[in-house]
Amino acid sequence: MFYYGVSIDRGCMKAAVFQGVEEPLEIQDVEEPTADEDQVVVETEACGICRSDWHAWKGDWGHIGVVPTEGLIFGHEPAGRVVEVGDNVERFREGDMVTVPFNLSDGTCQHCRDGRGNICDRMVPLGFLGMAPGAFAERFPVREADHNVVKLPDDVDPVNVAGLGCRFATAFHGLVSRVDVTPGDWVAVHGCGGVGLSAVHIADALGANVIAVDIKDEQLWAAEELGADEIINATDVKDAAQAVKAHTDSSQGVDVAVDALGVAETCKAAINSLGKAGQHLQIGLTTGENDGNVELPVDNMVMDEREFYGSFGMPPNEYDQIFRMMSRGKIDPGQIVTETVSLEEVPDVIGNMGNYETVGIPVCNEF
Ligand SMILES: [Zn+2]
Ligand SMILES: [Zn+2]
Description:
About 25% of the residues lie in helices and about 25% in strands.
């Protein structure tokens, strides 16, 4: 018998399985995976539930090649224990506690060799395509394990690591490795869902003055708790970008603006809140409505020499920076985890994300 090209001679496990666009995921018994020679199999202890799951479930991301097929197991923000190790895998053994960045690389292309495995030429996203079944399951396999699996320090809680998920990691990679945030810089975060709150927390830890913008007071209060110095409810002001600028020195605009939602409105508000030589960091991908395209004030960007950066997940080699900051309490992804649920509850949590009522990051920790 075969399972995603891997031979199977085992029992069954529970998993949350895709049934079709906007059809509730179903909890089903499926065959357990085994590790081929370059893989490990991880027993899931926790997995974050993410707006990206919702986007994929809605069929939003055909324009970037994410077209889930029936039978796919979702889940791309895992922490767990290695339970099986392929013959060629050198860096891991059974019992290791690990996490896995969602953008699985091949480890061999030019970008992987440059330490940028997150933009691998042959990247396969975990839990979005059938060839890489995800972690809303008792176990999941990881391709090219030596390149893609990240060993956890001894003292971290799997739920907090799942809270790192793609959101915290993408925000960290963006703010630490893509743009330049120096202490005292003004950083505006537009959109305070899971990734936005992560960006607020990280920018604060880096010593920035942080302005958080959202349309919901609950998200803004959470942003304040995580270190935002100023909060702006965009529904209370005529122009969110101008309201942001008003908080900065001589209303010049911010040094770094983050679009942490990925709709045309927040992307443009972020870019318009920048001062001269400011840097825009795009974390959110757009929805099906925008289809990957947003109109930008190009001439102003040119004349002000503003810069546009993308951040897409985080390469495995950058996780140690997060763990070192976690170990000294400088950052705490667990603060953004607001809810823990069982596998049986995952379909509803994803299905209800359309009403934008989730504050922070829900994590599944019961399989
Ligand atoms: Zn590669
Ligand atoms: Zn995610």
